[in-house]
């Protein structure tokens, strides 16, 4: 079994090339709700647990004014998709000119507002993927998920990122016999695939099945019928993404925070034969040969073509941080991360901040969408908390961990929300936007961005630079399917 270990939290990457030549953009004044455009990022979102305190680049503007020159790339969005795309482009070619627009503060969207997991999990759908797309494509999807998580771990280790990264044992915990038996069958099916196609399946992350009393004894949760355990990671996702941005800033990225893109316009082809785009913002217009949408749940508001497909559905995801009254420092149950595929509220997850971590002992609980009549779909306002969901998330920890592990009382530390994005098939939308030369997208991570986005950015860069997707990239992620679904 994988034991918990603290990896790289000792030092930060602090670039100096840009530190003396930046300006800090003012935060939007409280009470300025009139500036909110429905569907676009809200100017005053609730404070995220991970973004307190704000990062040193939170309000960074590399240049005081918007640049007038035409950039090679304009990237809209500074979350993990935008940050990874910029970094991978500049690692390939440091001479590129890249402008990044962020509507609010750096990494302030879903990447700075999730629950802190970085783990696989969608692998459980491998049978359904094979039935829908065939074995070759299904294996590409499963392998990309694990490779993406491994890439994130390698990034943190390589650059010694101070984001509280932890290697942890993680589990899918089951409360119903039907779902547990389905999970066991999936694990057995995955093992058969591993034996038959060892080079095409996710690598180095075997699943272990715990059943009945053995599961309850091992996991110390009296309610579960079984568990499937494997390796995963926890982190402060905001700090991880800000580290990506800092690396790109050191390579010449121009970051403009608190600068919301409001519309796109494709201009006539330039004399060099390159496409030319104008992006209108609240502060003026910028130009680029290529534009990358890394706008996740806000994409339909910015791009009418995507909106017309009804393929991208924004949603609001909610998380709470609480602190149990029991001393958790020596309790191994609080050094794991868990998901509940058959929870009554639909796909809950839980993480405990480990000893030595900032805010150690805090327990992060996310989910609860089923307690909302709308399931929190078609919502882009992250300035408010759903109190019904909050009450559930604050209280469920003691029930799941049990009195002996949790103690008598619960301190509420924080509640926050983030805007996510969903597609009917559960996959991101990545590639060239049809019929719009020079417009690209890596959006709609289905609440699973830490396991989809980094590798999706790698594929997107390959498409933009080399002209075609890499062989390992799954066909079901193609951007064209958003339009094909309506044909």
TrEMBL record:
Region (Disordered): 319-341
Transmembrane residue ranges: none
Superkingdom per UniProt: Eukaryota
UniProt cross-references to InterPro entries, sorted A to Z: FAD-dep_OxRdtase (IPR006076), FAD/NAD-bd_sf (IPR036188)
Protein name per Swiss-Prot or TrEMBL: FAD dependent oxidoreductase domain-containing protein
PANTHER family, alphabetized: FAD DEPENDENT OXIDOREDUCTASE DOMAIN-CONTAINING PROTEIN, SARCOSINE DEHYDROGENASE-RELATED
Domain spans labelled FAD dependent oxidoreductase: 72-463
GO cellular component: cytoplasm
UniProt keyword annotations, A-Z: Signal
Signal peptide positions (record): 1-19
One matching Pfam family: DAO
């Amino acid at each position: 079994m994988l034991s918990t270990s603290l990896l790289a939290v000792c030092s930060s990457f602090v670039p100096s090339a840009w530190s003396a030549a930046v300006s800090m953009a003012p935060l939007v004044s409280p009470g300025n709700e009139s500036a909110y455009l429905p569907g676009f990022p809200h100017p005053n979102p609730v404070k995220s647990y991970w973004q307190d305190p704000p990062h040193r680049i939170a309000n960074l503007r590399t240049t005081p004014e918007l640049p007038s020159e035409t950039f090679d790339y304009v990237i809209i969005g500074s979350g993990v998709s935008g940050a990874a795309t910029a970094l991978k482009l500049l690692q390939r070619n440091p001479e590129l000119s890249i402008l990044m627009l962020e509507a609010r503060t750096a990494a302030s969207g879903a990447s700075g507002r999730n629950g802190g997991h970085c783990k696989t999990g969608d692998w459980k759908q491998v049978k359904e993927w094979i039935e829908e797309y065939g074995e070759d494509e299904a294996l590409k999807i499963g392998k990309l998920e694990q490779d993406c998580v491994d890439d994130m771990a390698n990034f943190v280790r390589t650059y010694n990122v101070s984001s509280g990264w932890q290697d942890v044992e993680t589990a899918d915990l089951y409360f119903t016999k039907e779902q547990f038996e389905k999970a066991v069958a999936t694990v057995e099916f995955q093992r058969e695939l591993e034996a038959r196609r060892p080079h095409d399946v996710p690598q180095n992350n075997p699943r272990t099945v715990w059943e009945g009393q053995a599961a309850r004894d091992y996991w110390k949760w009296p309610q579960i019928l079984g568990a499937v355990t494997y390796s995963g990671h926890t982190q402060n996702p905001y700090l991880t993404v800000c580290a990506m941005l800092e690396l790109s800033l050191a390579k010449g990225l121009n970051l403009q925070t608190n600068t919301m893109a409001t519309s796109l316009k494709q201009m006539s082809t330039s004399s060099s034969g390159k496409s030319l785009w104008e992006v209108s913002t609240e502060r003026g217009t910028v130009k680029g040969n290529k534009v990358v949408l890394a706008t996740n749940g806000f994409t339909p508001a910015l791009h009418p073509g995507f909106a017309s497909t009804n393929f991208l559905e924004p949603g609001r995801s909610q998380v709470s941080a609480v602190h149990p009254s029991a001393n958790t420092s020596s309790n191994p149950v609080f050094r794991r991360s868990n998901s509940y595929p058959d929870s009554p509220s639909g796909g809950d997850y839980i993480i405990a901040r480990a000893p030595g971590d900032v805010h150690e002992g805090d327990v992060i609980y996310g989910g609860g969408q089923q307690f909302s009549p709308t399931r929190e779909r078609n919502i882009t306002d992250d300035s408010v908390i759903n109190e019904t969901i909050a009450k559930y998330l604050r209280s469920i920890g003691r029930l799941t961990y049990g009195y002996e592990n949790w103690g008598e009382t619960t301190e509420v530390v924080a509640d926050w929300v983030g805007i996510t994005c969903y597609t009917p098939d559960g996959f991101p939308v990545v590639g060239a936007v049809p019929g719009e030369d020079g417009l690209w997208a890596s959006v709609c991570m289905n609440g699973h961005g830490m396991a989809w986005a980094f590798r999706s950015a790698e594929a997107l860069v390959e498409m933009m630079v080399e002209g075609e997707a890499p062989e390992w990239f799954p066909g079901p992620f193609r951007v064209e399917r958003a339009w094909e679904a309506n044909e």
